[in-house]
Model the fold of this input.
Amino acid sequence: MRKKRVFVTGGAGYIGSHVVKLLGEEGYEVLTYDNLSTGHRWAVLAGDLVVGDILDREKLLEVIKSFKPDAVIHFAALIVVPESVSRPLKYYRTNVVGTLNLLEAMKKAGVSFFVFSSSAAVYGNPEEIPIGEEHPLRPINPYGETKATVERILRDIKLSGDPFRWVSLRYFNVAGADPGGKIGFAYPDPTHLIIRALKTAKGELKRLEIYGTDYPTPDGTCIRDYIHVEDLARAHILALEYLLEGGESDAFNCGYGRGFSVREVVDAVKRISGVDFEVAERERRPGDPPALVAKSEKIRKVMGWTPQFDDLELIIKTGWEWEKRLTSRKS
Ligand code: UDP
Done:
């Protein structure tokens, strides 16, 4: 039997590269399509890489037509929330128009299975915690709007009766790195808490700033559902299998269903790195909901997702090991 072929946009990026690696290990034939704006050639550990942009419609169609994938996993997107506020058009173009280009190319090439990287940002300020998939999509920034817009496009494709089927994975706070140490987070100017704390421990940042200590949470800092990138990568493989086996188009949360505060994360990073770095308490960062925790039963029940890294220490440890290696790496 021919190996199943998977076309991966953004496969040279942080989450995409972990999925590409796993696809290779699971016996899929993979082709990564990435413009290398934030991704790295060295991060693509399975299959070939085509350097291309999802905004280049002709190239995208040509590459898909010649690869003839069974399914597409779509990571390529812009992901920095504050930048999305200052440059909304750029975000709508890449994240919405780029995805439309991909969906149209898939239609032309007769590819009908699609896994989409969505985000907990589609929920905005949640009405209740934990957040279930049925919660209304009410994003509070342009980044979240672009993800919600694509989800609405996907919903409408489903309603149209098109045989095309999709899974949208709504990521909570992704962190950690490949336990084998080959890949991990490697973007310039990271804004995420765990990465910034690790870089502070490493001495790359002078101090870690805590954005807000007066939230209505037990220790006053925000609570997030941190999920290990390896467990998230596994969710993509399961989503692919689900679609190939006839599963209905649907959205699934990707989180563990428990949360940690900023202070808890900072303490854990200090403990694991052995560095007592400087911490400064600052004003709240605009647009941060006090708590974001996933209801995670749906993906566990429907796809049989069983996390292997649901442990903050392990998430930070793999991230720390990677961060130490990263110093010597160049793109
Ligand atoms: N945060 C912080 N200091 C930092 C980066 C983040 O206090 O240097 C806080 C941020 O305000 C939020 C939480 O950590 O409450 C998680 O933020 P992150 O940017 O990692 O993810 P988000 O939940 O915004 O997607």
About this structure: The chain has a mean pLDDT of 96. The first strand starts at residue 5 and ends at 9.
